[in-house]
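Appendix B, record 7
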Amino acid sequence: MIMPSNLRNFAKKTVLSFVYKFPPLPQQIHGKWVWVHPRARFSLSTKTFFKGEPHVQTWVTERLKPGHIFFDVGAHHGWVSMWTLPLVGQEGAVYSFEPSPANLSILEWHRTVNSFSQWMIVPKAVSDEDAVERQFFLIDSGDSPMNSLTTGIPGMPLMEGRDVGKISIQTITLDTFCREMGMRPNLVKIDVEGAELLVLRGARRLLSEYYPTIILAVHPYWLPPGQSPAQIIELLKTYGYTVFNSQGNLVEALCSGEYLCLNAKAEPIAIQ
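Structure tokens (predicted):
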């Protein structure tokens, strides 16, 4: 029996109101303890990152060094960001891009409670244009990893029964952000639930001149009409990138999953 969406949403909010009353929980990351917000600790993204994405942990750990700059595009609750902070050290920096108010509050909590001084949170969505107002979809009141510029478009799969809301947000391109901040990242993680091509189109200068390593989560079912995984890999290849799947195999086509995108022109990194 499938629970009606209104009852399911009510049940989720009731459970969350209980979870939010839990005290902070400790979590060990790279041998150091950090405090974790109870909502983040019990979220599906926690299980996904620690149990389902060991390849992402490996890619990040092997390639980030002290002094490096990491961009977390689509940061959600900040698990990937917190994983990278000890790797870049006090000499480096982590920039987390996240527009959902619900997720932003948890990101800010993690940064403040743990005194992560080298962690900067950017309350904007990354896209192919700089906009003061752009429609952004909040799934289940924004307390979801499925929030996106695209997931609420009518007809998108896996959205049946979901509470889909809309807010107006600011967007920025990675090219604009890098120019305004006077920096370039060594590694960029992109997990934006269907807005992958938009992010890459807004990073053409970054890709063509600075060649950062990219960890790209691809969601073919949430790409907007007129976009395809073939366009994503073609854009990457245009700028000299080769793409590897989670098993380390070179690929010429993309399906759902995470990919490591490397450019031969990038500064080589010694893998331990």
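Remarks on this record: The mean pLDDT is 89. The CA atoms of residues 22 and 148 lie 28 Å apart.
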